[in-house]
Amino acid sequence: MKARLRTVRLDLAEPLRISRSTMTAREAVWLTVEHEGLSGHGEAVTSVYYGLDADALVRLLSAVDLSRFGDPFGALEALREGELAGPRAVPPAVTAAVESALLDLVGKREHIPVHHLLGALEPPVAVTARTIGITSPLHAAAEARRLAAQGFQVIKVKAGTPDPEDDVERVRVIRDAAPGVRLLLDPNGAWTVRQAEALLPRFADLGVEAVEQPLAPGDPEALGALAERSPLPVIADEDAVSLEDVRRLAGRVHGVNVKLAKCGGVQAALRIAELIEGSGTELMLGCLTASTLGLAPAVHLAGRARWTDLDGHLLLAHDPWTGIGGADGVVRTSGLPGLGVEEAVAHEDVA
C-alpha cells in the first residue's frame, strides 16, 4: 500500500467564538491510501487545544508506515490491536485519520458502505445539532430563525462569556426566534461549580435540553457531583477523552461526547459505546470543525447516539467534499461503497 498526504486550508463561513477562543479557519491534512487501483481517504484537522498543527500532523501521519502491510485488512487489524505504529505513541487524531482511510478502502474493495463493515445494515440517518457561537443577541436570533426555516430541529448554543447574563440573553432570544427547536448548551468548561449551580436552573427554565462540559476539565469528580444535582442532563466532553476517562464517568454523568479525533477513531468510539451501555450514561457523537471527509466516519455510527452534533462541515465557507448531507438538519450516508464521500471541487493546497 502507498500513502500520500495533502494539506489544505478550511475557511469558516464566519468566525466561530467559544469561551476560550475564536476560530476563522483551520488546516486539514488529507491522507490517501492506495492499493490495487483503489483509494481510501481520511482527514486530520489542526487543533490548538490538542496541540496539533499542520506540520505535526504531516510528520505523525508520515511516520505511520502502511507499506509494511500487504493489504488494508492487515493494517486495520494492526490498528485494532494498537500496533499500527509499533512502539511509537500516535495521537488519537492521527489514528482516526488512518483508520478512516483504511475503512474507506476496505469498503470500496468489498463494494459495501462502512456502516455495513461496522455491523449496521440500515443506512444511518440522524438529526444533527447546528452550532451558534458566542455572538450578539440580534445575530443569534437571526441565525436561529434561518436554521429553523432550513429544517434544523436542534441548535447548540455556545456559552461561557465573562458576564453569564449575556449567555442567558442569547439563549432567550434564540428560544423566542425558534420556539420549536430543541436547545443544547456548551460553555466549553467556562464555569465554576458555583456559577453552574446558579445558571443551570435558569437555562432549564428556558427549555435547554442538556449542557455539555459546564465545568473546567480536569476534575471529573466535580463534574459527576454536579450532574447528580443538575436540573439538566450533563454531558462530559473535554473530561471524556479516552476509554479510561469514560470509565470514571460512566453512570455519573448523563452523556459523553465522543469525537473520533479525540478518542482515536471508529473502533475506539464503539468500545466507549459498549462500555456505557446500560450505565445510564448515553452517547453523543460530536466533531471538530472539519470537512465532510473528516465527519463521514462518525456519520456511519450515527444510529447509535442519543445526541448527534455533526455539523463541522456546515460551518465552512466551502466544503471540498460531499456525501453526508446536513444542510436540512439531517446527516445521512450516501449508500456508496466505503465512506461514500467524493471530492467536490479542486481545493487550494496550503503552501
Strand content: 15-25%
Number of helices: 12
- Name the CATH superfamily classification of the largest domain: Enolase-like C-terminal domain
Report the principal-axis shape. globular
CATH class category name of the largest domain: Alpha Beta
Report the average pLDDT across residues: 95
Specify the CATH architecture of the largest domain: Alpha-Beta Barrel
Low-confidence runs (pLDDT<50, min 5 residues)?
A: none
Domain module count: 2
- As for the CATH topology of the largest domain, it is TIM Barrel
Q: What features would you highlight for this structure?
A:
351 residues; alpha/beta; Enolase-like, domain 1; TIM Barrel; eight-stranded parallel sheet; globular
What does this structure look like?
The strands form 4 sheets. An 8-stranded parallel beta sheet has the order 5-6-7-8-9-10-11-12. Strands 1-2-3 form a 3-stranded antiparallel beta sheet. The protein has 2 domains: 2-111, Enolase-like, N-terminal domain (Enolase-like, domain 1, 2-Layer Sandwich), CATH 3.30.390.10; 125-343, Enolase-like C-terminal domain (TIM Barrel), CATH 3.20.20. Helix 2 packs antiparallel against helix 3 and helix 5 runs parallel beside helix 6 (164-177). The relative contact order is 0.15. With 351 residues, it is an alpha/beta fold. It starts with a strand and ends in an 8-residue tail after the last strand. It is built from 12 helices and 15 strands.
